[in-house]
Amino acid sequence: MLTTAGLSIITVISLTTGAATGALPGDAPVNASHSSSGVSWHPCALGTGDAEGRALDDAGVECGDVTVPLDYARPGGRDISVAIARSRGSDTAHRIGSMIINLGGPASPVLDSIPLARAAMGATGERFDLIGMDPRFAGRSTPVDCHWPAYWLPRSAGADRAGFDAMVSLDRDLARRCGRSQHGLLRHASTANMARDMDTIRAALGEPRLSYLGYSQGSYLGAVYAQLFPRRADRIVLDSAINPALSGTRVLRDAAPGREAQLREWAAWAAARDATYHLGTTADAVLGTVRRVYAASARRPLAVGPYAVDDTLVPALILTPLTDDTENGELADVVRLLARAADGMPTEPTEEMTATLASLVDGVGSATHTAQTAILCGDAAVSRDPEVYWRDAQRHRTSSPLFEPLARTITPCSFWPDAPAERPVDVHNGTPALIVQAEKDVNSQLPGAAALHRALTGSRMIVLAGTRTHGVYLFRGATCVDEAVDGYLRSGRLPATDLTCAE
User: How confident is the model at residue 7 (pLDDT cuts 50, 70, 90)?
Assistant: First the structure.
């Protein structure tokens, strides 16, 4: 089973809508001159200090680079490089083809996860060459990095105007840093261009068709690929899926009610264990502790180790462990420690809290964060008026004071140096695909997966009932799901009907 550490979580949305059209016709030969050049293969280790590369070499993984156009509308212009890794399947007698694996984000580097995927997929995986693709501008591909000192995702608009104004100031500064240092590249970051990169890689590998396994935001990338290149799509698995009509930072615009419901469910779990966590003997009492912490952080930042945790950060610390029901105890520890800090007691963060705060406050992972934001901003236009976001948060915060300001916060896209180069791709086609979804996922929620199922009219959907997790196939260890997905990958035949699985 894989670890979910590689799965990035999109937790913020914006307000705009707009008509979506495919910018280029399906299966258009947008990249013939680049795909003919093939893959430039090389050892994975790029130097004596490259531990990740050495591990890939030791696992028998091949690494390479594929040259792609920066701007597919101008294929004769500037080129960039997309890094890939290939683990060849051993069952050559039953070989199906190449399968690209994407862990979402968007822009999560994936090369180092290919040996883990090989081990997790077992005999089914041996019929495929497993391909990791670091999305354009991320990981080992041509990079963008605005050297951000902090990060905005998943930060909240806060409990009041002061928190919101702090987010406006942060987002404006992050966008300004990108406009100053990366202006020539940012305009060409988008999911549509990532899909075109995938097809360039398919052709460079000499494959007539391409299989795909994508998680979270990677489900949207797979759906866009199926829209742009339907005749080149082979076996497509979209796990923890999102609504393709809510591209860019709009992706979780409606996520707060589902998160609120799962927080209440967790509160009942914690109340039943009050002797251990001391958060309250009823769900309402536990939620009261959460509300008290949030209110205290708005009055004055909480001292948690070396960090000052304000009301823009508390929801992120709670959301991170809420993502998976196997982390109920971690979430209880987080709330207990925040309550201690709210009472003025010395408090040290858990390891997971430290990692979240290092990302949001210390700017750890700036390059990946830059690429992620650039793709979100490039996928769909947003309002550039901060007051639009403030009014929207105010209208909705009563129903969920903790999560609505998180879902409706302003983002750097409101100050981004470039508007999107094209309109979002309108996903609606009959390409066969298998959608996999946990019923209670708080990030890629069931209504969004159902919307993707409707848009992909040739798809089937498997729902893992009663489970709160993000990333199901290979990650959860749910036999019913894994066997159904493996059966589809081996045979190319979707289940006859949609399925509901139990653990």
Answer: very low
3-state secondary structure of 45: coil
How large is the C-alpha radius of gyration of the chain?
22
Amino acid at 126: E
* Residue 299 DSSP SS3: helix
Put simply, whether the predicted model's pTM sits higher than 0.90 gets the answer yes
Residues 6+ apart with CB under 8 A from 428: 227, 455, 456, 457
* Contact assessment for residue 157 and residue 410, using Cβ atoms and an 8 Å cutoff: yes
The span from the CA of 371 to the CA of 147, in Å, is 11
- Which two three-digit tokens encode residue 85? 């890794």
In the DSSP assignment, the letter for residue 424 is P
Model pLDDT for residues 308-354, shown as the tens digit of each residue = 999 999 999 999 999 999 999 999 999 999 999 999 999 999 999 99
CA 427 centroid distance within chain: 18
Q: Please report the DSSP string for 191-243 in residue order.
A: HHHHHHHHHHHHHHTT-SSEEEEEETHHHHHHHHHHHH-GGGEEEEEEES---
Distance CA 369, CA 46 (A): 23
The tokens of 499 are what?
């399925």
CA distance linking residue 67 with residue 201, whole number of Å:
9
Omega before 106 within 30 of 0, i.e. cis:
yes
Tell me the C-alpha distance between 289 and 294, whole Å: 9
DSSP 92: G
Pull the structure tokens for residue 141: 């591909």
Sheet holding 40-42, edge to edge: 40-42, 62-69, 79-87, 128-133, 97-102, 210-215, 233-239, 434-438, 460-464, 499-501
The Cβ-side half-sphere exposure at 288, using a 13 Å CA radius, reads 9
Task: Locate 442 and state its tokens.
Answer: 């708080």
Instruction: Report d(CA 378, CA 85) in Å as an integer.
Output: 26
Distance, CA of 67 to CA of 81 (rounded, Å): 5
Q: Which of 41-45, 184-188, 199-203, 435-439 has the lowest mean pLDDT?
A: 184-188
Cα(153)–Cα(313) distance, rounded to whole angstroms? 10
Which pair of structure tokens corresponds to residue 211? 């299989």
Query: Pick from 66, 73, 41, 67: which is nearest to 56 by CA?
Result: 41
| Residue 257 in this model has a pLDDT that exceeds 80 | yes
